[in-house]
Every structure is written in structure tokens, then in C-alpha cells.
Design brief:
This protein has helices at residues 10-21, 34-39, 60-67, 87-96, 108-162, 166-186, 190-199, 212-215, 223-230, 232-240, 246-257, 278-293, 304-313, 321-329, 331-340, 353-362; strands spanning 2-6, 27-31, 48-52, 78-82, 100-103. By secondary structure, it is of the alpha/beta class. The protein has two domains: 2-134, 3-Layer(aba) Sandwich (Rossmann fold), CATH 3.40.50; 164-362, Hypothetical protein af1432 (Orthogonal Bundle). A five-stranded parallel sheet has the order 2-1-3-4-5, with helices on both faces. Helix 6 packs antiparallel against helix 7 (190-199) and helix 7 (190-199) packs across helix 11 (246-257). It holds the Pfam family HD_5.
Length: 363
Amino acid sequence: MRILLVDDNKTNLTFLTKLVAKLEGCVALPFDNPVDVLGEMPGLNFDIAIIDFQMPNYNGVELMTEILRFEGYQNKPVVFVTADGDSAVRMAALNAGAIDFLTKPVNPLEFQARMRNLVALVTAQNKLADTAEWLRTEVEKAILELRAREEEIIERLTIAASYKDAETAKHTKRVGCYSEAIAAAYGLDRQTCSDIRLASPMHDIGKVAIPDAVLLKKGKLTEQEFASMQNHTLAGSDILRESRSSLLQMAAEIAASHHERWDGQGYPFRLSGERIPLAGRIVAIADNFDALTTARPYKEAWSVERTVSHIRERAGSQFDPLCVDAFLKALPAIMKTMLENREEPAGEITPRFEDLNMLQMAI
């Protein structure tokens, strides 16, 4: 236990230092000038402070007030040594944060008794603080473990969906990365961006409920088939929404809303504007970008330049204008992800010459 001693009278300081030396497990840190004490801040390590009230430059209350300005010392117990019996002086010290007084001349037996009690109190407080820190660490570990399990569940569900549609796995990975980039450019905090990246790959999880004849059809869907396909948004929400996991709840929200339109002409609920969850508005753009720039048996891949123009033109109708702005800002990151995740043989994503030029210009 380190005990700070501050007294401008060197005789008194030596006396207090000897008394501290008799306390088991205690070490004295003697100072005869309050200015020197402040000069050691904030690196001065002590557990208890014993401060003389009457000193030059700073009296005891003034010194304690300066010490307590430093965050690491705000809970340190302070005892005043004073020959002044004036109640106003004692009230000033108590109001400043002192917990006890010693009256000059200091009685050695009284000093040792009071210090033993105070040392025991500080020791108990330190143990309690250590326990609180241990509990905090354990809670953080448990949260990280739960988070890892949630991420694994999402990954397994995404893999399960890919068994029905092989293109889904590649598509969902890219959409997750694109969505995270847009969310970051939008200004969302890092945790929310990460959540969107993890949750967005399940935006099409409801396709497991779509008949194969519709889901795997190579040609254009009929009106009835398209209506059936639209049900994947509701199916995805139904699969995920009852989960207690915040990630899966976000995934359910995205599944239900990523085909809504800013102008209210989307599906399944014809939501408009900010009634559409922000995560759904972000994923709508990421999903659209990947779908257009990806080749399918029934269509060729669009160039990035054409796709960006398409999305920009639909700001305020199909897409949230602010999310479109974020998408344009995020293009360098999106293009980097796109190029890193193209598949062989070429045809899944085949960036064209103008796409590569656009990437270089964006970077």
C-alpha cells in the first residue's frame, strides 16, 4: 500500500514517514512541497494521501482539489493533518473530499489505528474493483462467444440456401461486402456496418420456400411466377423474425424490405421513404448493383458504368437519395470487392475495360 505524505515541515514529514514504515505492507511517498507533488502528476502512484492543511503555495484543500482533477485519483482517500480546530476549516476539507482528520501533534497510536482501518478499507475496495474488472472481462468474453455463434448460424443458413440456388452463395457474399461499404459511406458506426455485412447475406433466405420451377427457371418469369417469387421476402422474414438475436432480427428486417422502393411502388408492403428500414434501403442498392453487374443464363452482365448510371437515375424513385450518395462515395471499395471476388471461369463477374478505368478514376 503506497501512502502519499505531504508536509512542508520536514520534522513532521520524517515523523509521519517513520509511522508509515511501521504499518505492515505500507510504503511512504514523502513530499515537503505541494508543487513537487503536482509536478509528478499524473504518474504518481499512491493509494492513500495524508496532507498537511497549512502549507505555502497550496494549502491542503487547494492541493487536494488539484490532485482530484486527474481522473486516476478521484477515488483516492485523503486524510488531513491540521492543528486548526476551526469547524469552517474542517467543513472546507470535507466538502473538498477529505474522509478523515489527524490533529497535531499526531498521536502515534491513533495514527496507526486509523491507518490500519483505512488500509483495510482500501484493500477491500481494490479487491472489489478487481472482481468488477474480472466480471466485466468475463461478460465481454461471453458476448464475443454469443456473437461468434450468431455469425456461425448466419453462415450456416446462407450455405443452406445456396444448396437450392448455387448462384446465391456468391451473390450474397458480395452483397454483404457492398452493403457494409455503403453503410460506412453513409456514416453509420463501425458496429452497425459490421452487423449489416453479416445480416445482409440472408436477404434472399426466403427463396428456399420458392418452388424450383420458378426459382431455377432460365427464361423470363410469367406474371404469376413473378408474384410467387416476390413471396421470398415474406418467407425470409418469417424464418428469421422470431429470433432473439439482434443480428437475425436485422436480417429479418432486411429480408422483408430490400425490395421496397423509395416511392412506395415496391413489395411486399409498398412502404415508402424512411418507413423502409435503413438497412433494407442500403441492401436494395447493393443487391441491385450486384444483380446487374453479374451475368446470368438469361442476361449479360452490365458494365459498372451503365449500372452506376442506372442507380443514380433512380435516386428518389426506386432508391433512397442519401443511400445513392453513399453508394457513389463507396464505389472504390465496392469495385475492389468486385474484382477480388470474380469467379473463374469468367462470366459470373466480368469487369469490362471501362469498369477498370472507372475503378482507377474512383481511386
